[in-house]
TrEMBL record:
It comes from the Bacteria. Keywords: Signal. Residues 1-19 form the signal peptide. This is Dihydroorotase. The lineage of its organism: Bacteria, Pseudomonadati, Bacteroidota, Flavobacteriia, Flavobacteriales. It comes from Zunongwangia atlantica 22II14-10F7.
Length: 115
């Protein structure tokens, strides 16, 4: 009886963890918010490396991305997932010489980097 209960409970928990918001029909013009992860290391947003930002003359800081609203410029569906090109809604640059960034939408939503 106890094993049946634990099995049902584990199925419920796994269903809740995979039941997070997934992009179903993302189209151009949709607006999302960048959410800061706990370690400030964005895995599924393709950001420039910190040493490249230093070489371009910018102080490397990913903290300023937390809470930014971004707009989808283009969407590309491949066998690896759904990728989108994102730009800021206030038409400023993310970093020096970077107006857009690319994101893996499937994984960014499931890991909480976009909401």
């Amino acid at each position: 009886m106890r094993t049946i209960f634990l099995f049902c409970f584990s199925l419920l928990i796994s269903g809740l963890s995979f039941g997070q918001e997934q992009p179903q029909n993302v189209k151009e013009g949709d607006v999302f918010t960048i959410n800061s992860s706990s370690n400030l290391k964005y895995e599924f947003l393709k950001l420039p490396k910190l040493n490249m930002l230093v070489k371009q003359g910018e102080r490397p800081n990913y903290k300023k991305l937390n809470g930014l609203e971004v707009e989808v410029v283009s969407v590309e569906k491949t066998k690896e997932g759904t990728f989108a090109v994102l730009k800021r809604t206030d038409d400023e640059d993310f970093f020096i010489h970077r107006k857009t960034i690319k994101a893996n939408l499937d994984k960014a939503f499931s890991y909480g980097e976009l909401k």
